[in-house]
Amino acid sequence: MTPEAARKILAEAELICSAENSALAVRRVASEITARLTNANPLVLAVMGGAVVFAGQLLSLLPFPLDFDYLQVSRYRDNTTGGQLSWVVEPSSTVAGRCVLVVDDILDEGITLAEICHRLFALGAAEVLTAVFADKQSDCSKPIAADFVGITVPDRYVFGFGMDIKGAWRNLPAVYALKRE
Ligand SMILES: O=P(O)(O)OC[C@H]1O[C@H](OP(=O)(O)OP(=O)(O)O)[C@H](O)[C@@H]1O
Ligand SMILES: Nc1nc2[nH]cnc2c(=O)[nH]1
């Protein structure tokens, strides 16, 4: 996408969650995770690339021992609707016997997070917990619910705070919804 096209998309978009409220949501999630996992020595796995902002901010707010690694799956690529899930990077650290905390930007249909949890249990994880920055409201039932949720977003395509629109605007500190067609 050209820089001009990216700027036009942002200019026409609707603010869903300000930078201030996004930061507050991360702090609240960090407190909830701390209360639950202080003594668990978890392996925190960020789902790249969408989790980059959430995971980065969250990690610095977790005041207990943990290991960090990442995995990568892709289902949307440059589209605004999901397709076939493909594994780009499998978890490389040893997950067997570990308490694993999966961190992702958004839970939409839930297919991505459900597949990741399934894979981690297959690799022998003792416990798998999930944290998403945004949970999308939906009338359809999802195959998984996240253990920790930052904000709820409407059933529209959203971007910012790690979430992209055709590769652009992961770097925004706030969350926006794409202009309605
Ligand atoms: O709940 P679902 O409907 O399965 O969608 C959620 C997934 O979609 C996005 O990933 P995407 O495939 O766009 O990859 P990305 O992280 O590279 O943007 C997002 O980062 C979540 O992992
Ligand atoms: N950027 C982005 N990625 C998604 N993956 C699943 N739903 C969404 C969404 O609304 N925005």
Number of helices: 4
Residue runs with pLDDT of under 50 for 5 or more positions? none
Computed Rg: 16 Å
Number of domains: 1
- Record field, number of beta strands: 9
**Structural class, from secondary structure content?**
alpha/beta
CATH class: Alpha Beta
Helix content: 25-40%
Average pLDDT works out at: 96
CATH topology heading: Rossmann fold
Bound molecules: 1-O-pyrophosphono-5-O-phosphono-alpha-D-ribofuranose, guanine
Order of H and E elements:
HEHEHEEEHEEEE
Protein name: Hypoxanthine phosphoribosyltransferase
GO cellular component, one term: cytosol
Domain Phosphoribosyltransferase: 19-164
Transmembrane segments: 43-66
Folded structure, characterized:
This protein is an alpha/beta fold. The protein has helices spanning 3-12, 19-37, 52-59, 111-122; strands at 14-17, 43-48, 67-74, 86-89, 99-107, 127-136, 148-153, 158-159, 175-177. The protein contains four helices and nine strands. The strands form two sheets. A six-stranded mixed β-sheet has the order 4-3-2-5-6-7. Strands 1-9-8 form a three-stranded antiparallel β-sheet. Helix 2 packs across helix 3. The model has no long low-confidence stretch (mean pLDDT 96). The structure holds 1-O-pyrophosphono-5-O-phosphono-alpha-D-ribofuranose and guanine (GUN). Residues 76, 106, 108, 157-159, 163-164 line the site of guanine (GUN).
